[in-house]
Specification:
- With 224 residues, this protein is mainly α.
- It has twelve helices and three strands, in the order αβααββααααααααα.
- Strands 1-3-2 form a three-stranded antiparallel beta sheet.
């Protein structure tokens, strides 16, 4: 790779991360349009890597590319949330079956992620509506669930679950922003999942996940 190509890759990644974080942090609200020129100035890169980043984000579900109108930040819908939760159940419960059936070791990082999500200062900021803290919680939440899937050693299952990361994080940010008072329940369910899988108790783990991914009525009403 030439030096010029290396700079283009770096600029593309910078633009991608800038816009993605801006969406998750609420800097670019759902339904708003983002302009290449403005993003180029904000991210400090040329318009070409911004354009490439927008197309990548559209492919991942963060944006909708509308003819003659541009890139619009996608709204989280009830349908998307329900369908994502359904697919997560299929993939995660399959992973739980492998973990418990083969009595595989649960990575120690799982307990560390639970502890990070239980951090009192972060939870306080989330409850106060701090989008940065909420976005960080959504990242940790994905890493926690992904950790169990990856521990199965099934690379296809792992790749399929990884493909849900953008939706997982967008929905997580929206759900906690709408109803931050659910955080203690989420924390309790994460601990229950970890305990069940550490004991290789498939039925308890699967039941906990189904409860965990049951759409909250308040969130559903807000998104309609």
């Amino acid at each position: 790779m030439s030096a010029e190509e290396g700079r283009m890759v770096t600029a593309r990644e910078r633009a991608y991360e800038w816009v993605k974080e801006g969406i998750l942090l609420g800097r670019y609200p759902e339904g708003s349009f983002v302009e290449e020129k403005v993003l180029s100035e904000e991210a400090g890169v040329s318009r070409t890597p911004v354009r490439e980043a927008l197309h990548r984000l559209a492919a991942e579900g963060f944006l909708d590319m509308l003819p003659r109108r541009g890139a619009q930040v996608r709204r989280v819908t009830v349908g998307e949330m329900i369908e994502t939760y359904e697919m997560r159940q299929v993939l995660e419960i399959h992973g739980f079956s492998a973990l418990c059936g083969k009595r595989l070791t649960i990575p120690p990082e799982q307990a560390e992620l639970v502890a990070e999500m239980e951090d009192p200062e972060r939870l306080k900021r989330c409850r106060a509506g701090d989008r940065e803290a909420i976005a960080e919680h959504a990242k940790l939440d994905f890493r926690f669930h992904f950790g169990f899937v990856r521990a199965t050693g099934n690379t296809v299952l792992t790749d399929l679950f990884r493909s849900l990361q953008p939706r997982h994080q967008r929905i997580g940010v929206s759900a906690v922003t709408i109803r931050p008072e659910r955080l203690p329940i989420i924390t309790h369910e994460h601990n229950s999942l970890l305990n069940a899988l550490s004991a290789h108790d498939f039925e308890r783990a699967a039941g906990t996940l189904r409860t965990h991914l049951n759409p909250d009525d308040t969130v559903v009403s807000h998104l309609r």
